[in-house]
Amino acid sequence: MRFKTTLLGKPKHSDLVSCVGWMSPDEVFSCGDDHQLLRWNLVTNETVGVSEFPSDMFPLELHWLPKTSVHKTKGGAEVFLLTAADGKFYIVGSNGRVEKVVDGHRGAVLAGRWSHDGAGLVTAGEDGLVKIWSRSGMLRSTLAQVSTPVYGAAWAPDSDAILYTAGTSLIIKPLAPNSKPIQWKGHDGVILKVAWNPNTGLILSGGEDTRYRVWDNFGRQLYSSSLHHHPITSLSWSPDGQLFAIGSFNTLRLCDKAGWCHSLEKPSTGSIFNLAWSSDGTQVAGACGNGHVIFAHVIENHLEWKNYEATVTSRNSIALRDVTNEAWEKLELRDRIIKLSLSHGYMVIVTSSQGYIYSTRNWNTPFIFELKESNVSLIVQAERHFLLVDGGSVYVYSYDGRVMCSPRWPGMRTDVLNSHTVSLSNDTLAIRDKTDEKFVHLFDATTGKGLNDGKPWSHKLEIVEVALDQVGTPHERRMAIVDRNRDLLLLTLQRVGSMGRAVKLGGMVQSLCWNDGANMLAALQDAKFTVWFYPAVVFVDRDLLPVTTLEKDASEFGKNAAVDSFLDTQITVRRSDGSLVTTSVSPYPALLHNYITTKHWDDAVRLARFVKDDIVWACLAAMATANRELNTAEVSYSAINEADKVQNIHHIKEIPVKEARMAEMALMAGHVGDAEVLLVQSGLIFRSIMLNLTTYNFERALQLAVKHRTHVDTVVAYRQRYLARFNKTETSKLFSQYEKQVEVDWNKITEKIEMEYQKEREKPTTSSTQNFTDT
């Protein structure tokens, strides 16, 4: 990936250009020390003067009111904020007319930015003040005062805090009163520019020490560049937060969000004082010290999926290659390419006006569909359909270009959605809420209707990442989440009713990725690279979790690495310097998954006997237990020397009642509550009482016995035997009461228990089936 730069032979401005801003993806406004406001049209290549400002007004920063803002001026006109060296800031219309002038600071207004919702703005000045203003230019508050000029300021992703510079330090000050600011030393020299991306929450800073640095929102440094030859005079995040641009003297860099550099350009521009990205994230405009405005287009975006490679070679063309036979294709599109995605056998391309869907089996005849708002910021693919975030809406399309649904939720914000907070499978869509990051909205991917009774699923901590597994039926769909503590949890999604509980898989998880063809999960943990070959084992038999997990040393990947993809048996990891490292895992667990999906249990057992690997046997044991295949489970557990589990399965196979067998299987997985609910709903009150007695939950057993007026003496007898064994006296008032009311006769109790079991055996609808799959 690199910039393709465009620079006119002769500058249009007669003096230094201080600021630029995009009114639309094809139109740029620029302003400088010649007091001219120019409009650049990139389609017609025309440049026209819009207006001329007074000779004593020297602009410093330009920022357009966000497109998502509902706070438009009368008549819906578009306006921008312009700060100047005379201590004033100006609100200017797209026709160049100054609509508002506000005297804001003593000395120059060095920075000015609209909030993300457009409801207010922040200015920072040479006088060391940071001020918050209303949309109309009324002063709301003076947020901070420092002893040095404040060269940069930026809004937090939720517009609830301000990041500003103070010499060599960076400070985050919440807008809430009496809240404590976060301050840390950012650079060795004066910090000149800052930016805070609303999508990823990452902070970017650059200064006179000739370095740029990437931080998280707690002030932890994620990346520090090497020394440049000149101070960093401009920087800017792309709208989706995946890239950023850095400007310096005769220098323009394109960098990944992790900090490493994609490309370095050396244009003859002088210092680049300001950089701005177009709303579609494909172009950058720069304000140059020699009067030029430089334009840079992102090209050579490279995608890989299995044996296919796709590379954007120009604004509207893509080169395709099949590495197995070296076959080449070139796709020429009518309009500028904005986004593309290659996965699951399809390539989705979004241009400035249309969408194209190509199948890897046929590159000649794509499905073409019209975009709703032509402002696509995200593409997420699944096997059967894909998702587009287009403007203010989310759409799920089939691969023939048909809109399947457009889910909505309260407080919907699409400008902050990214691949970590949105996940799509064949039947489910999961989106983390931005207003409250503890919530995940769950939808049916084909209809857009909400799951979990229409309510978001909630976690006790803020959620950083969500990921749905890709294989299996809707009733087996599972979601992995990573929370603020970097704990990895797994949740089974219910199609009807409320969701179950999340179970912890691991901790200190930096990055994760599901396999595309089997429900295996790869993750980078603190100093380990971990693959869970059957993550759902935590719902079946947690004792098998270590046996079904592969752990490797992750030192070869370095710090801040991320799992890029998990295709077949190949896992690709991107290191912090941008290089890709590939590692592989055993092919047998994936093959086992395929056998289980197609219900070929005999083939699965033959595979495990051939491989003779404890991981394969343990996965098979858990899969067989989950699918109620007792014969296979018995063989698998015996192969890994789990004698107690084999004995328990023998016991379960002898139970004549299907519901009781299912309850015993749930109990074997450790789900005591689920087992009791199943028994009570099936009318097996005696077994539910015995279940609580064998798990020493005497109070619950007594509650059931009293409620259903049966086996009260049995419960009291078991309680007395338990206390006698440990030489304890009764402390429960409830048990003391019923000890006086019932007579404990072990002979009668034994007869009653035997009669209950005899009734079960005599039921005509039951049989001692060894394998049962209906639930």
TrEMBL record:
Keyword entries, A-Z: Cell projection, Cilium, WD repeat
Ranges of residues in domain IFT80 second beta-propeller: 300-588
GO cellular component: cilium; intraciliary transport particle B
Pfam families in the cross-refs: Beta-prop_IFT80_2nd, TPR_IFT80_172, WD40
PANTHER family xrefs: OUTER SEGMENT 5
Domain IFT80/172/WDR35 TPR per the UniProt entry, residue ranges: 616-762
Predominant location: other
InterPro entries, per the entry: Beta-prop_IFT80_2nd, TPR_IFT80_172_dom, WD40/YVTN_repeat-like_dom_sf, WD40_repeat_dom_sf, WD40_rpt
Localization per record: Cell projection, Cilium
UniProt source species: Petrolisthes cinctipes
GO-annotated biological processes: cilium assembly
UniProt WD repeat ranges: 102-134, 184-216
Protein name: Intraflagellar transport 80
